[in-house]
Amino acid sequence: MKDQKAGISEFGLIDIIKRRYQTANKGLIVGIGDDAAVFAVDKTRSGLLTIDTLVDKIHFDLAYTPFEALGHKALAANLSDIAAMGGRPVLAVVSITIPRGLGCKDIAKVYAGMGRLAKKHGVAVCGGDTVAGRELSLTIAVYGEARKNNIGLRSGAKAGDAILVTGTLGSSQAGLEILKSKIKNQKSKIFQKHLWPEPRVKEARLLASKFKLHGMIDISDGLASELHHIARESRVGMIIDQGALPVAEEAVTAANILKKDPLEHCLYGGEEYELLFTLPARQAVEARIILSRAGTTCSIIGQVVKGNGVRMIGSDLKNVKIPDKGYKHF
């Protein structure tokens, strides 16, 4: 962890909290360190609990974020965490900090965007808190449930597994960079995933119903960062194939406009909310077919191996280390 003068490292801080201050009880199954806490409910079900915060000028900017999109995205981030555990979201509570200058109509739009997504996934928004403050912020906690013996964990990957990812990658970061640039009149499709992400709840439940889940995480901080999370927690290495990465068309379009490499958006762009998971090779092929029939693309991008770290076989067939970087919260 960095010292106070240099700034705080997010995962260094989390590690200190986990080692020094985490408390537990008999019902706790998984504590700090995964996408959600896991606790016992009954003989067949486990409860899942996650929480996330979005703060103005840190996680969003009202200059280009509609209020409806803000509500949608804030809930989507939490639903994605539940999906990453193979779970079903059940209910949500919301705390909103409201600065001066925002009216009831603005706040109503936030809740309207949130409500539409909640209804789509059968989630009850059933309480929370409202306070005054200097910046607009949203904190949402979501409770979900999963089968007790089939929960997706960052620590579940096994050597020999295939590595899979849903959807395409890079368009969220690409859209953000276009939104923050001075470029005008670009197609709204480029912004879609950044402003209106779709959590892979349906896909996660489908996978959990068909397979014994191995390693799983959602891509919130970037593909490279999440690969490193699974590798560390599972104590394995990972090798990915550059040619197999599902780079989004929007990422290529934005990269051409901004004169950047779309591979950077694909590897290190955050807020994708796709599922990154591992399964035995034969089941991985089956998973691709099942998800495709359900309307979701899925790509096999690499393999879990013995060892540690993350490497990529490039288009020139060179095997290179992938640095552990992505979105940094501090």
UniProtKB/TrEMBL annotation:
Substrate binds at residues 59, 271, 327. Its EC number is 2.7.4.16. Residues 158-312 form the PurM-like C-terminal domain. The keyword Plastid does not apply. Mg(2+) 1 binds at residues 52, 129. Signal peptide: none annotated. One of its GO terms (molecular function) is thiamine-phosphate kinase activity. ATP binds at residues 111, 128-129, 154, 220. It catalyses: thiamine phosphate + ATP = thiamine diphosphate + ADP. InterPro entries: PurM-like_C_dom (IPR010918), PurM-like_C_sf (IPR036676), PurM-like_N (IPR016188), PurM-like_N_sf (IPR036921), ThiL-like (IPR006283). Mg(2+) 4 binds at residues 35, 50, 81. Mg(2+) 3 binds at residues 35, 81, 218. Mg(2+) 5 binds at residue 221. It holds the Pfam family AIRS. The keyword GTP-binding does not apply. GO terms for biological process: thiamine biosynthetic process; thiamine diphosphate biosynthetic process. Residues 33-145 form the PurM-like N-terminal domain. Keywords: ATP-binding, Kinase, Magnesium, Metal-binding, Nucleotide-binding, Thiamine biosynthesis, Transferase. It is an enzyme of class 2 (transferase). Pathway: Cofactor biosynthesis; thiamine diphosphate biosynthesis; thiamine diphosphate from thiamine phosphate: step 1/1. Belongs to the thiamine-monophosphate kinase family. Reaction mechanism of ThiL seems to utilize a direct, inline transfer of the gamma-phosphate of ATP to TMP rather than a phosphorylated enzyme intermediate. Catalyzes the ATP-dependent phosphorylation of thiamine-monophosphate (TMP) to form thiamine-pyrophosphate (TPP), the active form of vitamin B1. NCBIfam families: thiL. This is Thiamine-monophosphate kinase. It comes from Candidatus Edwardsbacteria bacterium GWF2_54_11.
